[in-house]
Design goal:
Arginase, Chain A, HDACs, 11 helices, Histone deacetylase family protein, single chain, 311 residues, histone deacetylase activity, Ureohydrolase_dom_sf, alpha/beta, eight-stranded parallel sheet
């Protein structure tokens, strides 16, 4: 089995000065996959620029145009306290969203079953009309709309296991019954959302600080898995954030590498059951570089099943 690995050189050129969301995140992943032997089962693709129609499906036109207008010729422009643009940021964000679009095209075309998008900036905090939390465009929502509106699917699931609530994804997809959105996250914590009543197609699972792998697995088993079985998605999309790892000091959850392997296998089992194995994963958080590389390794090996365990 082969996994499509989608990235783009512009994603390495986006930087925000001294910042945890740094280009070294992608090089740490590349280095780890080379060392652990996963490189042999990856098929590399260069992410295109996202199609304008899909960009406008997920985001307001005025917001999109504002990012084009604010993109600097040099230096940095601050969009919010956490998010800035340099001269390469806009192109990086367009390619990051394009990676999700291409990933869906690949699995829907039958060319490949599983995809990992190693891209930055991440996307799940980007709302319909604003950037925040290091994110400009909502990559995973764009992938979902591509599947629904260009490939004729009726049901798509987005599963988000970042330590931060996927507020942007919820903002964009809430009320769209074609999309099931599930998110685990530390609460109370940035962005201070996700704990109240929400739309019927959204399953939020807030976790208290200190939650370990046992608590995480129990919550996913309780809240996600029955709803996924009932929904029977025709495509599984993953917002893969690895910042709930115990080594990542950005937050206070205590997951380890094997917890990410476990949740990945559960999502692959659902993909096998209802989606012909189709799964597209997009990188979100994860800021301790050694842990990030190992967690992506665990994530991809779990996608491969027994083949990955043998590597």
């Amino acid at each position: 089995m082969t996994i499509a690995f989608i990235s783009h050189p512009e994603c390495l050129k986006h930087e925000m000065g001294p910042h945890p969301e740094q280009p070294a995140r992608l090089t740490a992943i590349d280095d780890r996959l080379l060392v652990c032997g996963l490189e042999m089962v990856l098929r590399h693709y260069e992410a295109p620029v996202v199609s304008r129609a899909l960009l406008e499906r997920a985001h307001d036109l005025d917001y999109i145009e504002s990012l084009y207008a604010r993109s600097p010729g040099q230096g940095h422009v601050q969009l919010d306290p956490d998010t800035a643009m340099n001269p390469h940021t806009l192109q990086a964000a367009l390619h990051a969203a394009g990676a999700a679009e291409l990933g869906v095209d690949l699995v829907m075309g039958g060319e490949i079953k599983q995809v990992f998008c190693a891209v930055r900036p991440p996307g799940h905090h980007a709302e319909r009309n604003r950037s925040m939390g290091f994110c400009l465009f909502n990559n995973i929502a764009i992938g979902a709309f591509n599947a629904l509106e260009n490939h004729g699917l009726d049901r798509v699931a987005i599963l988000d296991f970042d330590v931060h609530h996927g507020n942007g994804t919820e903002h964009i997809v809430q009320g769209d019954e074609r999309i099931l959105f599930c998110s685990t996250f530390q609460h109370p914590f940035y962005p201070d959302s996700g704990a109240g009543k929400t739309a019927d197609n959204v399953i939020n699972t807030p976790l208290p600080a200190g939650t370990d792998g046992e608590g995480f697995r129990a919550a996913v088993t309780r809240d996600w898995l029955p709803r996924l079985t009932e929904f029977a998605p025709q495509l599984v999309l993953v917002s893969a954030g690895f910042d709930a790892h115990q080594a990542d000091d950005m937050a206070g959850l205590n997951l380890v590498d094997s917890d990410y392997a476990w949740v990945t296998r559960k999502l692959c089992e659902q993909a096998d059951a209802s989606a012909e194995g189709r799964l597209v994963s997009c990188l979100e958080g994860g800021y301790e570089l050694h842990a990030l590389g190992r967690c992506v390794e665990a994530h991809l090996k779990a996608m491969l099943g027994p083949t990955g365990a043998a590597l």
